Amino acid sequence: MHNIVLILKQLLPFIEVLFLWRLSVYFWNPAGILALIPIFYYTFVRPIHGFAFVGLIFCLLIDYRCNLPLLWTTLFCLFYAIDGFQNYIDVQHTDNNALYIFMMFIGIGILLMIFSGLTWKNFINNVWLFVWMCILYTPITAIDTLFYQKGLK
Amino acid sequence: MNLKFFVYKVSIMIKDKSSYKLARIIKSALAAAAIPVILIYIMVAKPDYTVTNTLAHIFLPIAYGIGSVVTWPVRAVGQSAHWVREMSNLRNENKQLRVKLDEALAYKNDCDIALAENKKLEKEIDVKKASPFKTVIADIQFDDSVFHHNTFLINRGKKDGLTKGMVVVSFDNRLVGTVLDCGSVFCRVRALTDSTTKIAVRITGSDISGFLQGNGKSGASVGFFNDTQFIGRAGLKVITSNISGILPSGIYVGEMTDEKNIDVIKPYNLSRVMVLQFDDQGSYK
Lengths: 153, 285
Known about the structure:
A: globular; B: elongated
């Protein structure tokens, strides 16, 4: 029984991504874009072995569903490369689970989306999405502290 | 003995911090190398993106299947809440529908006469109007309305005979969109409200043609009329025109709400659609 619980806790990051991606709802989670939160968190802040590949696949799927030409996939690769090469910022030990770096990650993507369709409606939608994702980042990543990390110790 | 020593050495290397750093740099280098490849691919593959679409066709059904299992309890609760809400609205809707039905029955007689007259005239001037003989009914899996793009996925694909470019209509025969990309068990449909939608339309009862363009989320607008003096107004009905050769003519698109905007079907109001097959001549197969 203990082993099953342990396995489930280890699978939690993957389940989180699937959960948020699959439960896409217009306005609140368009095209499952909220899945970018656990993708970012478990790739850069609390890296899990093999998760980067899953993150890449889901970035591709988000791009496909958003009808975007590999925007999030490119950004993910870019951040992954920068994170690996630099040692100036220790993302894993940054305050607030690296919320500000996440804001940068999301912000760049959303900014590009704003420029790709310059209308007021698109601008407001994108700003809303940025704010909503930043608000949800802390509670979603708190799941990791509550269940995942405690369970493995 | 040697093998044991080798395994021991490797395990030490894995635990070693410098090896970890090296592995990290290699992974980062791979990610960095992927960026120019992706950017070149975007430039070269535009607008088909065959490779990425193929990859999505492989991974999407897998992720969808596993995701459906994982999220089943949440979706079941959501569906139940939806049904409860639907039930509460049903009585009012029933009353409204009865009134509409009475009006429609009264109107039907006039329509029957007009249809019969129309058929007679068509025969006289030898107009061949095709009607669909093959339709595929599909459920909407995802509404992917995001940013200024508005696409959705349906649960029918190449296996059901669907291909890119097919017409998607609602059950009341209103145009919903066109098939953008086809996987084996699903298709991605571009809705009329998508900002990249551009289709030729005609004002019913006239020869005035124009182009419909989606405006992102809320609706679509009509412009570029062949009659420059023409000014649209609320209440005008718009149908497809096959002047661009992409869509067959005569499919109802929507009603104009003012001189420019048109009320079209939004995918988030639908749960099921029909896909029509048509040939290159613009008539249905």
